[in-house]
Every structure is written in C-alpha cells, then in structure tokens.
Design brief:
By secondary structure, the protein is an alpha+beta fold. It has helices at 23-36, 55-70, 79-88, 93-100, 120-128, 140-147, 151-157, 160-174, and strands spanning 2-6, 9-20, 43-48, 105-114, 129-131.
Length: 175
C-alpha cells in the first residue's frame, strides 16, 4: 500500500489479484468498512486495474476528483465514481464504469481509499485476496486498445503513463 497526504486528505492506493463472485456483496462489504471507519468522509473505490496506467495516473485522478467536489464541479454524486470518471478520462459515468468497473471473475484490482483509517487495506484484502502492487504497472497493449491510444501519441508524450496523465488533465478543460 502506498499512502499519500495531499490537500488535507489521506489517500491509500493498493493493488490486489482477486476473484469476485458477487459484486453486490463486495459493494455492501465496502460500505460496512466505510461505516467502521467512523468517518462520513471515508470513500473506498475498487477499479479494474487493467485501465490504470500506474500509480501516478490513479493518484492524479483522485486528486482531480477531490478538487472537483471542493469546487462543486463534480460530474458524479459520489467521490468514488468521480475518481473512476477522472481516471478513465471520460465525461460519462456509464463509459467510465465500462472501462474501469469491476465484474465477477478473476481480475486485477486497484483500491483507492480516501480519508479512511489505515486498517482499510487489510479489511479489503480479507475479501479480495492477494495484495499485489504489480497490478498497478501499466500494460501498454491493453491500455492502447482500451483507450484507443496510437503509438504516435505514446511517442509524443514519452510513455503510456504520461498519455493518461495528459488525458485526465485535459478532462478538466472540457468540463
């Protein structure tokens, strides 16, 4: 787990290799964990890690989501969904969830927790399984296909992570 403190917010980012058998059960469990944190501000979002271009990418998206809520410029009603929207560089929640949403089956998962206690990673790991930070490393081919990124765009930006950082930053200008 990597922990970051920005703008008076504690952000935890972790990767997991897991198998989901019931997404509703997972969401209910996450809600219970949030309540246990004794904080109305605790947000836990699970994201399909195949759509993440590294930890900087998800951290930038999280910071943009927090800023959007602080400025009343959010597109989603909930911070977790706003993180998905920002990370996917999409303006539509449905498209963001299609790209980054979790589903039943084996998958690599990125967990983002904002303003939660330090036990959140352990508790999430109890249901998701094996913690594995390697799942946050970008898979260039998957990301190119998922986001329709050309080799020229990668060459221009320098690498796939920078492409996604640019796209998430540009989303702010479009809103």
């Amino acid at each position: 787990m990597n922990q970051h403190n920005f703008m008076n917010h504690n952000i935890q980012i972790s990767g997991f290799k897991g198998e989901i058998t019931d997404t509703k059960e997972i969401m209910d469990y996450l809600m219970d964990i949030s309540v246990e944190c004794n904080s109305e501000k605790c947000t836990i979002q699970l994201i399909n890690a195949r759509g993440i271009a590294g930890e900087k990418h998800i951290l930038q998206a999280t910071l943009q989501a927090i800023k959007a809520f602080e400025r009343n410029k959010n597109m989603a009603k909930d911070l977790g969904l706003e993180i998905c929207v920002r990370a996917s560089a999409q303006r539509q929640i449905s498209r963001a969830l299609k790209i980054l949403g979790i589903d039943n089956g084996k998958m690599d998962i990125c967990m983002v927790a904002v303003d939660c206690d330090e036990q959140v990673q352990k508790k999430v790991g109890e249901i998701l399984g094996e913690k594995n930070h390697q799942v946050l490393k970008p898979d260039v081919n998957s990301l190119q296909e998922l986001y329709e990124i050309s080799p020229e765009e990668i060459e221009s930006a320098g690498n796939i992570e920078r492409v996604m950082l640019e796209r998430t930053a540009l989303l702010n200008l479009e809103i």
